[in-house]
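Why do we care about 3D structure at all? Because function follows from shape, and shape follows, mostly, from sequence. That is the central idea of this module. The next example makes it concrete: a single protein chain, its amino acid sequence, and then its structure expressed as tokens.
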Amino acid sequence: MSQDRKDKILRLGAVYELAIEVLETPENALAWLRTPNYAFQYERPLDHIFAHDGKNVMDELHRIQHGIFI
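And the structure:
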């Protein structure tokens, strides 16, 4: 397995764990990750995890966690 693939898997795991923490259930986390979102120009957060470094998705989850909605 390539290092790039390993990095993507670890990134997905970290985002998924945070999504569960913030959104309280695995089902809510998966629904949020799969649903187009205004914060990502109506793209799915899941697509941004792989297209970027995932930081923007983590940042959005932290904003939700702290009640900051844009």
